Amino acid sequence: MIKGFLFDLDGVIVETAIFHYQAWRKMANDLGFDISEEFNESLKGVSRMDSLNLILQHGNVMLSEEEKLILAAKKNEHYLTLVSQMTSDDILPGVKDFFEQIKKTDIKIALGSVSKNAKMILEGVGLINDFDAIIDGTKISNGKPDPEVFLKGAEELGLQANECLVFEDAVAGVEAGKRAGMKVIGIGHENVLTQADLVLKSFENINLSDLLSKIL
Ligand code: G16
Ligand code: MG
Asked: Where are the transmembrane segments (predicted)?
């Protein structure tokens, strides 16, 4: 029986991927190369330093660890100026209504994000009090596709892995949920999120009891 929902943040609750892309792209451009939107797909759900390493590899740029830390901090500063303007209007369509349906049940809600900025973003869009547990990049040592973020989420909710359902938009995140031994609902495209148990285009017009009957 499903007793807890674990939500990814970026691409599931709010669309911050575009801001990550803008900030990483500016950094790449300053280094003399470009990154495409398609390449950006491979960065979704991947931690800040892992993303930076993938981008530098993509542009054939070799840097010292110290230089990398400086670039990552600069990218984050730029990213924060972009996300600091977010409000409740930036919550993805259908999410608020879906949360209201969950609140009428005993199902608990946790966040499972590798972002170190997750709490700030949830506060900004006014959702922070809706979560029973928040696991973010400050609480984990391994980014997705490692299952740590979701296993910690289950633990903080006091639940077993098989009592949790994960909502994820990234290939790495779906893999993390499956490796945690959980059912995973992909938010996005079926041909991309092939490992998910079920894929929804978004939360728009999603009925909670219908969804649970499909996933059991
Ligand atoms: C998110 C994004 C990733 C980002 C990562 C780290 O993960 O999808 O693109 O690199 O967080 O974010 P930050 O630099 O803010 O710590 P998730 O798990 O919320 O999808
Ligand atoms: Mg995501």
From this structure: none
